[in-house]
């Protein structure tokens, strides 16, 4: 027998860990990347994929960053928890905008809102714990839950409910393993906003049953019509010991690329998350933190200007989408997304193809109309599309006109 003859052995371990191999790529970022690649190749693609304001960051914030870059104090490590002056400003901003007091010690500054999401679940979820996740949901939540060892329990509210779950639905989904509820209002991806009464009812339910609330408030300043943003902790103050608040400067101040978010919570949770961050990334870039300080310390006039533009686009987008036969659009009252139900279009033959799912329909729209939208599968059930109206009005109108023409 040749010395090179192989003999049976134990199977070789997989190259990528099971934990990371199970993570799905961010669907919204994938759609945005594909649209940008096609555009770079000369195709006239219009992208509705990214949840990113198309406005530049306000100049006073940029100026603060430029000054910070020139100050050698910002060229060194700083506390993993965040610059003390920024944590104090976030506490002051919380009182101003949300109407309740927190200590700067309860604030952890993170590399964007996504790190805050991940660390919130990592801080309180043990293997086997269940997290109630109202669907449609932002695509990152279930992945962060899984990485913490938790199990996502979807609670679905369709377009017939304006994408708002009820206390009765949450109670029906609760089990002895339920540890937390993810609450996002105003919502990405649907633009739905819970009323003060609905928010208070859900908060009281969570408190009664000892369920933690992780509340994502990053779209707090983007509400329209008669909708109002209701902070869970203002509605139900007694939840303070079992609530983690997630927020950041990205959406409010058009600062998605600066990567500054934060989490607010009970001291023991924030200490645990800070320990994790000290090993994971340590401090957020000091120049970005100084820019965020200028943002949260300033007034909200730049935000008001952007919100007016978003509101005008929202009305245009909704009215144009409603002209398409088979498309149903609940009125989005927050954030900068419309979330049409397209079940009435599925099964229809369009240019020789018959899409049966919203993923197939989104692929067809990209190939035939050169318009990038995100299918409902990225956010839960099939049968929906997410379109961001955080893009220029001219592109937005042209993009929807192309979809109208394709689906006519």
TrEMBL record:
**Entry-linked Gene3D superfamilies:** Aspartate Aminotransferase, domain 1, Type I PLP-dependent aspartate aminotransferase-like (Major domain)
Q: Does the keyword Transferase apply?
A: yes
Please tell me whether the keyword Flavoprotein is annotated for this protein. Answer: no
Q: Which domain of life is it from?
A: Bacteria
Q: Which enzyme class, named as a word?
A: transferase
Q: Which UniProt keywords apply?
A: Aminotransferase, Pyridoxal phosphate, Transferase
Looking at the UniProt entry, the stretches that span the membrane are none
Residue stretches making up the Aminotransferase class I/classII large domain: 44-398
> Mind listing the GO molecular function terms for this protein?
transaminase activity
Family, according to the entry, reads as follows: Belongs to the class-I pyridoxal-phosphate-dependent aminotransferase family.
> Any idea what this protein is called?
Aminotransferase
Organism from which the protein derives: Oceanitalea stevensii
């Amino acid at each position: 027998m040749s010395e090179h003859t192989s003999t049976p052995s134990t199977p070789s371990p997989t190259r990528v860990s099971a934990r990371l191999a199970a993570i799905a790529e961010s669907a919204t970022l994938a759609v945005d990347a594909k649209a940008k690649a096609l555009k770079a190749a000369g195709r006239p693609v219009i992208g509705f994929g990214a949840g990113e304001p198309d406005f530049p960051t306000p100049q006073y914030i940029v100026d603060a960053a430029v000054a910070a870059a020139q100050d050698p104090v910002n060229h060194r490590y700083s506390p993993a928890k965040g610059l003390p002056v920024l944590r104090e400003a976030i506490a002051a901003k919380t009182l101003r905008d949300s109407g309740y007091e927190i200590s700067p010690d309860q604030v952890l500054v993170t590399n964007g809102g996504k790190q805050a999401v991940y660390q919130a679940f990592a801080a309180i979820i043990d293997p086997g714990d269940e997290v109630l996740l109202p669907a449609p949901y932002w695509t990152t939540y279930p992945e962060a839950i899984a990485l913490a060892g938790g199990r996502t329990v979807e609670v679905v509210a369709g377009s017939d409910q304006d994408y708002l779950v009820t206390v009765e639905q949450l109670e029906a989904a609760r089990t002895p393993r339920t540890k937390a509820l993810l609450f996002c209002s105003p919502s990405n991806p649907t633009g739905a906003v819970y009323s003060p009464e609905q928010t208070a009812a859900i908060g009281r339910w969570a408190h009664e049953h000892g369920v933690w609330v992780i509340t994502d408030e990053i779209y707090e300043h983007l509400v329209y019509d008669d909708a109002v943003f209701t902070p869970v902790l203002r509605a139900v103050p007694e939840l303070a010991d079992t609530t983690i608040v997630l927020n950041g400067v990205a959406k409010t101040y058009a600062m998605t690329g600066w990567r500054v978010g934060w989490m607010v919570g009970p001291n023991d949770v924030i200490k645990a998350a800070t320990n994790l961050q000290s090993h994971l990334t340590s401090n957020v870039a000091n120049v970005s933190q100084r820019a965020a300080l200028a943002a949260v310390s300033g007034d909200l006039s730049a935000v008001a200007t952007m919100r007016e533009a978003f509101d005008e686009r929202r009305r245009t987008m909704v009215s144009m989408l409603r002209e398409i036969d088979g498309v149903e659009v609940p009125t989005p009252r927050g954030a900068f997304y419309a979330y049409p139900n397209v079940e009435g279009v599925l099964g229809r033959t369009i240019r020789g193809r018959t899409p049966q799912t919203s993923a197939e329909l989104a692929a067809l729209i990209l190939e035939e109309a050169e318009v990038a939208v995100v299918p409902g599968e990225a956010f839960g059930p099939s049968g929906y599309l997410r379109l961001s109206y955080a893009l220029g009005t001219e592109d937005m109108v042209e993009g929807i006109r192309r979809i109208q023409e394709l689906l006519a």
